[in-house]
Design a protein that fits this description.
The structure holds two protein chains of two kinds.
Chain A: E1 3-6, E2 9-12, E3 15-19, E4 32-35, E5 45-49, E6 64-65, E7 78-82, E8 85-88, H1 91-95, H2 98-112, E9 117-119, H3 129-135, E10 139-141, H4 143-150, E11 153-156, E12 159-162, H5 163-169, H6 177-201, H7 204-212, H8 216-227, H9 229-233, E13 244-245, H10 255-266, E14 276-281, H11 292-303, E15 310-316, E16 320-323, E17 335-336, H12 345-361, E18 366-369, H13 373-379, E19 388-389, H14 398-415, H15 420-440, H16 442-449, E20 453-457, E21 460-464, E22 470-474, E23 481-483, H17 485-494, E24 498-501, E25 505-506, E26 511-513, E27 517-520, E28 529-534, E29 537-544, H18 548-553, E30 558-565, E31 574-575
Parallel strand pairs in A: 3-4, 3-10, 4-5, 5-6, 8-9, 13-17, 14-15, 14-18, 18-19, 24-28, 25-31
Antiparallel strand pairs in A: 1-2, 7-8, 11-12, 15-16, 20-21, 21-22, 22-23, 24-27, 26-30, 28-29, 29-30
Chain B: H1 3-6, H2 37-46, E1 64-72, E2 75-83, H3 90-93, H4 113-124, E3 132-136, H5 149-160, E4 171-175, H6 183-186, E5 195-203, H7 207-214, H8 222-232, E6 235-243, H9 250-264, E7 270-275, H10 283-289, H11 298-314, E8 320-322, H12 341-354, H13 358-366, H14 371-381
Helix pairs in contact in B: 4-5, 9-11, 11-13, 12-13
Classes of the chains: A alpha/beta, B alpha/beta.
Chain lengths: 579, 391
């Protein structure tokens, strides 16, 4: 949750700016207001309006909103008020045309930079605040609330009500404008508080999807932004420990979901030596291996004696395909969908695209599908002629499990002798290589695992370099590789995931604050493993808490939580930089 | 087949010698200090979409002609309105005013004097003894590049000296940019008709509104100068003012219109306050489609007329002040909430006919529609909220 600190006062994002009119007094919870000239009554921060270009008013003070000149209608204008506040001029107007809004808004948000809160004037009411906040708006103003009240409209997070209906619902006598203003403001306060809560718990997207279905324009805007992957993705964490509900058709295009699918297609390497592709159904419970159905299937796979030669890949929506090595990774370990057994066209396309990519890179001799008939029918055109389908009724039915066991037994005969111990050991390293390729790309995966060694049991598998140094380990809570300084040095050498700091040595077990960061590699996202460097010297490693742009722009807040720090050298100052 | 149709489907744009100072000694039409280059560029780009640029149709056909109610010398009268298809307004051809959609009704091709006279003759067959005849082009009737001087004279002569069995109208009205109003252009028209009237688009008395909102191309001072010329030639002057051109808040529009009425009144026998309406292929239209333009409230019109009239009368104004609201009550025209629009328009009509400002006062006193609160709130929010949407 971003903040704006100015003149000893703090404004939380998202917040509401209250225009001083003769129509209403600001309620006590308001912490920013906008008015003319000096004010003796304003409690929180106060913006002073400079009027309009036609009628500029005499405004002085640190927080003046200067009047904007006129310009072509196609040009979005963004006003930088101070280091921490920007205004997207006429946001309310732009938003009424979703197509034009997308470009204008991205332009405004980019111009504002992550370091500034963005005010979207005349935009938003309790029914769509969540959407705008999700897109990165920080501040709204009460003008739409007041205008609605004068029109006899009560605003709720479930959409507008007539004054009569609202009064009846509340069992009160007919509402006048004053009552409506009071109600609309309270409605706004409540919804903004809900959004705060959703941000804290990492569930904002779910709130947005609940709200947008009130208005076609809101749905349109979310869909258009979901297609602008880079924009939303930059603000979307790569990892979090919260369930990700994927309840609607639009969930298919959530930025974290699309990012997972893209990495699977573009970066992910399949484990070498896995000769048999086994496509399995997903399960309600995540990670899959903890579910009853997957435990039942796992028994059969284990008993086959060739499990290290199998590549287990789960068929699912909205992620398409999730290989076993990635099942502990966000969002594969957290998504939650309604299961009907019916595939929509879009879901079919997604899973087919993923499967085509997998088949292209995997070196499989055999394919076994242990998933229902409907799923098999969708995938069949992409699969080789000799594919085996072992699930005729239900994946965990006795008949079907036996059919799967029989098929694996047959394959074992074809594959010849397998040394179970060696195969399992090799496979453990291969799985880490696959995981690393998903996480850092194929080149880093190769560097990290070449001639290396893996030891331990899922979910705690350690990765060692050829010289015996530990590069990292997987953990139950993050699923991905957590690196040691030596592992992080590999990334630094490859010029990836670097966070550049000035010449100081971060103190052990502390946080690296944004103020100490000069810049970061552009693809650094919240939740990424990063290596903290000064020039090319590794000074520490940890998990990014901001994306690259924010680290460069922000003056407050934690940029990286450090896991390891380099041993201090004599000439380098040891600093604990705090905000 | 004429030259224009021979050009096929090619996009038309034509030379504007008047703009380039080739129009002769006194024809300084555009003052570049009153041009907003960015807005002019956008206006010019938007006008690429004008249909007539691909097909201007028959150049001997006029655009429209109809008979309507009007007022002359305080008395109701009939008026015949003729709109000729000319090559277009010199200023609009170069980009031009942000709210003006008349360029949609221009040929964007050279229209000869003969063709213009033919258009007029065809239209004038509808003349049925109206006291007033309005000859409008989508530009300036006395711009010699738009309506050649001999066409001007032939048309006015035909109106002023009709066949013996027909009666000539009392007055003939046309419109022009003030830059074309000079001794040289008015002198040849003397005596052709009983009375002449020229309508001038004054829009605003505010320099920045003219430059950065309207992109008018000339300053307010051109208007009193032109009015002075008209006075010398016995031509009466009608001033058109624009209420709420783009990028003005409602609160700005109210102030601007009131001030402009007061400034323009001494120079005109009739002042007409025109609320901006959203016409196709204009900057205003682009702004409107983007959700950032709301035409003025009828309340603003009533209030500006009342305040402007009161002040102008104190300064000795004895002429007419009116407002013809085009597309009243519609989203693209001046409107209130939809419930009171018809009634408020009724008061405006009564005021226009009687020229008694008590009707404006009565409108404000008697019409207690709930939307007045929203209008007042809009006036307060405008200067506080950096947005145009609905403000």
């Amino acid at each position: 949750v971003a903040q704006w600190q100015s003149h000893g006062k703090t404004v939380q994002s998202p917040g509401l700016i209250f225009p001083e009119t003769s129509f209403a007094q600001a309620p006590p919870w308001i912490d920013v207001s906008v008015g003319h000239g000096e004010s003796t009554t304003a409690r929180g921060l106060r913006l002073v309006s400079g009027g309009t270009w036609f009628h500029p008013t005499d405004a002085s003070g640190p927080l003046v909103i200067p009047p904007l000149p006129t310009g072509p209608t196609t040009k979005a204008q963004t006003l930088l008020v101070d280091d921490e506040l920007a205004v997207f001029h006429d946001a309310g107007g732009w938003a009424s045309n979703p197509k034009h809004f997308v470009r204008a808004y991205m332009d405004a948000r980019t111009t504002a930079t992550p370091g500034r809160l963005l005010w979207a004037p005349a935009l938003g009411d309790p029914a769509d605040y969540a959407l705008w906040v999700y897109l990165g708006v920080d501040l709204f103003d009460a003008s739409p609330l007041l205008v609605a009240a004068t029109r006899g409209i009560a605003l709720t997070s479930d959409g507008p009500l007539s004054a009569e209906d609202a009064a009846r619902l509340h069992g009160e006598p007919p509402w006048d404008t004053a009552r409506l203003i009071q109600f609309n403001l309270e409605s706004a306060r409540l919804e903004l508080a809900r959004i705060h809560q959703a941000i804290r718990t990492g569930t904002l997207r779910a709130l947005v999807e609940r709200r947008i279905y009130l208005r076609p324009a809101s749905v349109e805007i979310l869909r258009r932004f979901d297609r602008e992957h880079r924009f939303l993705e930059a603000a979307t964490p790569r990892h979090r420990a919260v369930a990700l509900p994927a309840m609607t058709g639009d969930s298919l295009w959530m930025p974290e979901v699309e990012a997972f699918r893209r990495s699977f297609r573009d970066a992910y390497l399949t484990p070498r030596g896995a000769k048999v592709l086994v496509l399995l159904p997903c399960s309600q419970r995540k990670p899959y291996k903890t579910s009853r159905s997957h435990r039942a299937m796992a028994r059969v796979l284990d008993e086959s004696g060739i499990r290290p030669l199998l590549h287990e890949v789960m068929i699912t929506s909205p992620l398409g395909l999730v290989p076993r090595e990635l099942e502990d990774v966000y969002p594969a370990n957290q998504y939650d969908i309604p299961v009907t057994g019916h595939w929509t066209r879009d879901e079919e396309e997604v899973v087919k695209t993923q499967l085509a990519s997998l088949l292209e890179k995997g070196e499989y001799d055999h394919v076994v599908v242990h998933a229902g008939q409907a799923t098999f029918d969708v995938l069949r055109p992409l699969l080789p002629e000799h594919v085996r389908h072992t699930c005729l009724h239900h994946p965990t039915s006795r008949d079907d499990l036996e059919r799967l066991a029989a098929e694996l037994k047959r394959l074992k005969g074809e594959l010849g002798t397998v040394h179970p111990h060696h195969a399992a050991r090799d496979r453990k390293l291969e799985d880490l290589r696959s995981l690393a390729s998903y996480q850092f790309g194929p080149r880093a995966a190769e560097e990290l695992t070449h001639d290396g060694r893996a030891a331990g049991h899922v979910p705690y598998v350690k990765l060692f370099a050829p010289d015996g140094a530990q590069y990292g380990t997987t953990t139950a809570d993050r699923g991905v590789l957590s690196l040691t300084l030596e592992g992080a040095a590999v990334l630094a050498r490859l010029g990836m995931k670097r966070v550049f700091i000035q010449d100081f040595q971060p103190k052990k077990t502390s946080s690296l604050f944004a103020v100490g960061v000069d810049s970061a590699d552009a693809d650094v996202r919240i939740g990424d493993e990063v290596v903290v460097v000064h020039r090319d010297e590794v000074r520490g490693c940890g998990v990014a808490q901001m994306n690259a742009e924010e680290m460069a722009a922000a003056k407050r807040g934690v940029a990286v939580t450090l896991r390891h720090t380099a041993a201090p050298k004599a000439q380098v100052p040891v600093l604990e930089v705090t905000a | 087949m004429n030259a224009a149709s021979a050009a096929g489907t090619e996009l038309r744009s034509i030379d504007t010698p008047g703009l380039k100072g080739e129009g002769g000694a006194n024809q300084q039409v555009v003052d570049y200090a009153v041009v907003n280059r960015e807005l002019n560029q956008e206006a010019r780009e938007i006008r690429q979409k004008i249909a007539m640029r691909w097909d201007p149709g028959e150049l001997t056909s006029y655009i429209r002609c109809w008979s309507e109610e009007d007022v002359m010398d305080g008395q109701p009268c009939r008026a015949l309105v003729i709109i000729l298809k000319t090559r277009g307004c010199t200023w609009a051809l170069a980009g031009g005013c942000t709210m003006c959609g008349y360029a949609n009704e221009s040929a964007w091709a050279k229209v000869t004097a003969d063709e213009l006279v033919t258009q007029f003759e065809r239209a004038y067959r509808k003349y049925a003894g109206e006291e007033l005849v309005k000859i409008y082009t989508s530009g300036s009737f006395i711009d010699r590049f738009e309506v050649m001087p001999q066409a001007q004279q032939r048309i006015l002569a035909a109106i002023g000296k009709p066949a013996p069995d027909r009666k000539a109208p009392v007055k003939v009205a046309f419109e022009s940019l003030p830059g074309f109003i000079t001794d040289e252009t008015l002198a040849p028209l003397a005596g052709l008709c009983e009375r002449l009237e020229v309508g001038i688009g004054v829009e605003s008395a505010n320099f920045r509104v003219l430059r950065d909102s309207v992109n008018k191309g000339h300053a307010f001072e051109e208007f009193p100068r032109a009015a002075e010329v008209c006075k010398r030639h016995g031509v009466s002057v009608k001033a058109y003012l624009m209420c709420k051109p783009p990028f003005l808040k409602e609160s700005d529009a109210l102030v601007d219109s009131t001030r402009t009425i007061i400034e323009a009144a001494p120079h005109a026998y009739m002042v007409s306050l025109n609320p901006t309406n959203v016409q196709g292929n204009t900057v205003v239209d682009a702004l409107y489609k983007r959700g950032s333009y709301r035409p003025p409230w009828l309340w603003t019109i009533v209030q500006a007329l009342l305040d402007g009239r009161t002040a102008a009368e104190q300064a000795g104004f004895k002429g007419m002040l009116k407002s013809d609201v085009i597309a009243a009550g519609q989203d693209r025209g001046a409107h209130n909430c939809g419930k009171c629009d018809e009634n408020v328009s009724g008061y405006l009509k009564k005021y226009k006919a009687t020229q008694d400002k008590k009707w404006l006062q009565r409108c404000l006193d008697e019409m207690q529609c709930g939307c007045r609160a929203e209008w007042r709130l809009t006036l307060e929010l405008g200067p506080l909220i950096p947005a145009y949407a609905g403000l």
